[in-house]
């Protein structure tokens, strides 16, 4: 999963909340949704209440950028350009193959998912520094979300309608990423 939306919890949500200036409890509820939509509107982004690669890039949250098959947008175009591909902004099979080829040539885990470690190897992603890469990894200091807080949010929120971009077995792909901060994301609804 490379997008955050209402109903998720985890360290990436906490990071997003910190940037949005809302209570950083790691639970994506109504206040986070409202603040995100306002940010998107104020910054000429698609106002959908979903934080994905383009929103993370606009916010300077490069440690949360994770591109994979099915993603769309300007950050995907930037990846495609850096890989020497036709830049249509759609992460499809050709982009996945190019990412896998790059990962193989650089001695990285070959999973076809472009997170900070992979993006740092692509021309045009100079904003991805060693600090960014370090911030994208779960450490012993990463605080888990309290189950009681997640349960309370579950009881007080109405679940959102599923978004079509979340179709498929995305969670299985994220599990393959290893120690990515994205592994801390949980559904609370």
Overview of the structural elements:
The structure is a single chain. The protein has helices at residues 11-20, 30-42, 53-59, 74-82, 93-105, 116-119, 130-135, 147-156, 170-176, and strands at 8-9, 186-187. It has 189 residues and is mostly helical. A two-stranded antiparallel sheet has the order 1-2. The longest helix is centred in the N-terminal third of the chain and has 13 residues, at 30-42. The two termini are 16 Å apart.
Features of the shown structure:
single chain, 189 residues, mainly alpha, two-stranded antiparallel sheet, 9 helices, 42% helix, globular
Derived from helix and strand composition plus strand pairing, the structural class reads mainly alpha
Oligomer: single chain
The ordered H/E elements are EHHHHHHHHHE
Classify the helix fraction into a percent range.
40-55%
Sheet with the most strands: spatial strand order = 1-2
- Shape descriptor reads globular
Intertermini distance: 16 Å
Mean pLDDT: 83
Largest sheet: 2 strands, antiparallel
Return Rg in Å: 16 Å
Give the helices and strands, then pairings:
Elements: E1 8-9, H1 11-20, H2 30-42, H3 53-59, H4 74-82, H5 93-105, H6 116-119, H7 130-135, H8 147-156, H9 170-176, E2 186-187
């Amino acid at each position: 999963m490379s997008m955050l939306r209402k109903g998720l919890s985890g360290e990436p949500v906490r990071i997003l909340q910190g940037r949005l200036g809302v209570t950083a409890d790691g639970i994506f509820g109504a206040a986070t949704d409202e603040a995100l939509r306002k940010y998107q509107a104020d910054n000429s982004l698609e106002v959908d209440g979903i934080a994905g690669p383009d929103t993370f890039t606009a916010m300077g949250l490069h440690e949360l950028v994770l591109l994979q098959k099915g993603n769309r947008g300007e950050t995907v175009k930037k990846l495609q350009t850096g890989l020497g591909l036709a830049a249509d902004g759609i992460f499809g099979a050709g982009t996945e193959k190019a990412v896998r080829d790059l990962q193989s040539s650089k001695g990285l885990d070959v999973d076809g998912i472009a997170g900070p470690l992979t993006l740092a190897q692509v021309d045009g992603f100079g904003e991805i520094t060693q600090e960014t890469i370090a911030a994208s990894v779960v450490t012993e200091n990463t605080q888990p979300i309290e189950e009681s807080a997640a349960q309370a949010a579950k009881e007080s929120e109405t679940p959102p309608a599923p978004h079509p971009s979340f179709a498929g077995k995305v969670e299985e792909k994220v599990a393959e990423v290893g120690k990515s901060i994205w592994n801390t994301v949980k559904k609370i609804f």
